[in-house]
Design brief:
The structure is a single chain. The chain is an alpha/beta fold. The protein folds into two domains: 223 residues, Thiamin diphosphate (ThDP)-binding fold, Pyr/PP domains (Rossmann fold, 3-Layer(aba) Sandwich); 175 residues, 3-Layer(aba) Sandwich (Pyruvate-ferredoxin Oxidoreductase, domain 3). Helix content is 31%, strand content 18%. The chain contains 13 helices and 13 strands. Strand 11, helix 10 and strand 12 form a beta-alpha-beta unit. The structure holds iron/sulfur cluster. The site of iron/sulfur cluster has 11 residues, from helix 7.
Length: 425
């Protein structure tokens, strides 16, 4: 892999003449000047035209919800810490900076080590040209053709007031890579507002208006304020250089699995309040104790206290790149809610699949092998999901049986419900 950050800087996805192309190219030039390798850069983009740059980047990319990119980047920057050698950069538009203003202020206030690049073309380009809070008086847009308001916000002043160590505003014309490099190199939080005019909506609504003239007339002047950065060794950054993953969550391999297929998928389907999610997490941890990779994904209604509760667990001998499930190899159904949830999977199941189902439930139509078990009655409904995991262990024989007992004894539930509760009767 060479050191270019953009896949093809001559073929960026924006309208002809859009300033977003310049911002991407100047960011690439700045990163190259600073000696960053593409894989040491995490680009977090927002909703808006600028955000479609993702597919043109050769860095790590994360695409956030509208206005939330700074919050996502703040978490990444905090987790990586100042000494990681990685660089977190946020791209967002003036629309995103309107919707997500609080996130910008908080990130500046906490001095998260990242650079926020606000593409301010003074309107929402992706949705047809609505004004944002950074649209100056006198700048018309298609939906506000004779704009006159109470004035616009100044993101540079706001970020500075919140504590940002580095803020600047530049005109997105010509080569502004030196200004971008200075902001990116800053140790701590930095923000650059790049002024642009959207050719598709801004130019058409303001014929003849030039960017520099607009900046002069509206007071959006190029500016820069820099404070002495806080060094990475400063006590204020103590927590920033530690992993966000607690040592308590580490799982040691103590057993050996017996899986012959590369991947096994298990669907747990039960009711809220009956331990489905905890049982699925337990299974994932047991699998890791046996040297497997595991993922767990929960499904439940927004009203988490009622209705179905389901979880997909994937066990794999290799890396799991996608945690979405296709056809489960096993289904563990512990309640009527769970049975309703699992019906589409049961209908599509092959004869190679196995279903463990509580004996109180009607047997569904399926090609899968059905095994009726006393999951609810044997250990109480609140432990039905955990009971299904122990019975799955017996049926599948894929993981070491002692690993289930040991991992269970390490958990909090063991103090309330002894492991013997789950022994095969
Ligand atoms: S609509 Fe405007 S902001 Fe969006 S890509 Fe086209 S020129 Fe750029």
């Amino acid at each position: 892999m060479d050191n270019t950050f953009l896949i093809d800087s001559r073929d960026l996805p924006f309208c002809k003449g859009c300033g977003h192309s310049s911002v991407a190219q100047m960011t690439e030039k700045a990163l190259a000047k600073l000696g960053y390798h593409p894989l040491d850069v995490i680009m977090v983009t927002d909703i808006g035209c600028h955000g479609i740059i993702d597919k043109s980047l050769r860095t790590h990319t994360v695409h956030g919800l509208h206005g939330r990119s700074v919050a996502i980047a703040g978490g990444i920057a905090h987790g990586l810490g100042k000494k990681s050698g990685k660089k977190v950069i946020v791209f967002l538009g003036d629309g995103g900076a309107t919707i997500g203003l609080q996130h910008i202020l908080i990130a500046a206030h906490h001095n998260f080590p990242m650079t926020v690049v606000v593409h301010n073309n003074m309107l929402y380009g992706m949705t047809g040209g609505q004004p944002s809070e950074y649209t100056p008086d006198g700048f018309n847009t298609p939906t506000a053709p004779n704009r006159s308001s109470a004035g616009s916000l100044d993101i540079v002043q706001l970020a500075e007031a919140a504590g940002a160590g580095y803020v600047s505003r530049v005109a997105g014309i010509g080569d502004f890579s030196a200004e971008m490099a200075e902001a990116i190199a800053y140790e701590g939080f930095s923000l650059v507002e790049v002024m642009e005019i959207c050719p598709s909506y801004g130019v058409k609504s303001n014929p003849g208006m030039k960017l520099r003239q607009l900046m002069d007339e509206t007071g959006y002047l190029a500016t820069k304020k820099v404070k002495t950065p806080i060094h990475a060794d400063h006590p204020a950054y103590e927590g920033y250089n530690q992993s966000l993953i607690s040592d308590k969550l580490l799982v040691e391999q103590l057993f050996t699995h017996r899986m012959t297929k590369p991947t096994v998928r298990i669907l747990l389907a039960g009711s809220a309040g009956e331990g489905t999610q905890s049982a699925a997490e337990f299974l994932a941890r047991v699998a890791m104790c046996n040297g497997l990779q595991a993922s767990k994904k929960g499904h439940y209604p927004v009203t988490v206290g009622v209705g179905f509760s389901a979880a997909e667990v994937i066990l794999s001998t290799g890396t799991i790149y996608y945690s979405g499930g296709t056809k489960p190899d096993f289904m563990l159904i512990t309640s009527a809610d769970g049975l309703d949830y699992a019906r589409p999977h049961l209908a599509q199941a092959e004869s190679s699949a196995t279903v463990l189902i509580d004996e109180s439930l009607p047997l569904p139509e399926t090609k899968a092998k059905l095994i009726q078990l006393p999951l609810r009655a044997a250990a109480g409904v609140r432990n039905a999901a955990m009971m299904s995991i122990f019975r799955w262990a017996d049926v599948s024989q894929l993981l070491d049986s002692q690993s289930f007992i040991d991992e269970y004894q390490r958990g909090k539930l063991a103090a309330k419900v002894p492991v013997e509760t789950f022994s095969a009767k």
